[in-house]
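Re: weekly structure request thread

Next one in the queue (291 aa):
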Amino acid sequence: MQPTPPPEEESSSPTPLSPEEEAERLRAAAARLREQVSDLAVQVQARPRVALAEGILVERYQLGDRQDAFDLLRQASQRANVKLHQLAAAVVRTPGPAPGTGLWFPGRTPQPVLDLEPLEAGPLDPTNQGEVLGAALRHVLTLTGTDMGNVQLLEDGVLRMAKHAGLPRQFTDHFAFVSGSTSCSRAATASRQVTVKDVASSAGFDDESRRVILTAGSRGCHSVPLVDEGNNVHGVISSHHARPLIGFTQAQLRELHQTSRTIGGWIKWHQETVILDALEDLHRLALDSDG
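Done, posted below.
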């Protein structure tokens, strides 16, 4: 008797998506691609700085290879809660410890924590960059009467997006790094507040930047440089507004100026305290790994 063949199964094919489902699938795919592009942009900007820091650490501590150096940078950045590329930049720009010393900065005097009360945000952890910048952004948006804005930090002559609120991904991707002619770059260069009353008619933007800003729902913007007591600019906070601006009162401008000084001074303190503490910790980790 011949064995009975198994029943033939009907081949299954994917159920066609409705137009709405297909549109949602494409939107999700586009979002994933934008995120990948944004991540790659950050890596491209940061990689030369990280690579240079790796080379310095390999030579200074006689490490096995660059991976060992990268692991040290990553560990120290995580322990200090600072961005890896910020720590790498500090390694590059800071003179190294004296040979054979257990401390990178012997005799360093701790800097007093700056008063963050003007931000009206309650207790803040001054070592937490994200927390402080978030509070500063919320304060500026409250003062200017909007829910859209961003904070950029000045690093190696380029403004890097560090915090944002109410802005779409297309905007934050496009302005992830800024060195061209925009209101924020003009505020940083001139070290003064800059108001763009109507983005649509302003000559201060290239066509693509103007399109991205208008698509985000912003018709007016105001940029405040973050300046320390030595008049060094460390970044910019910008507010974006759904309607063209008519300007701000003198009281509002004074409050924004005070915020500028508060955050500019805090960024300097962060660089001279938290970043240097992270470098000191990196030095100890490297010595321990060598031992």
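The helical segments are 19-61, 66-80, 84-93, 129-144, 169-174, 183-190, 207-215, 250-290. The chain has two domains: 26-95+273-290, 124-270.
Next request, please.
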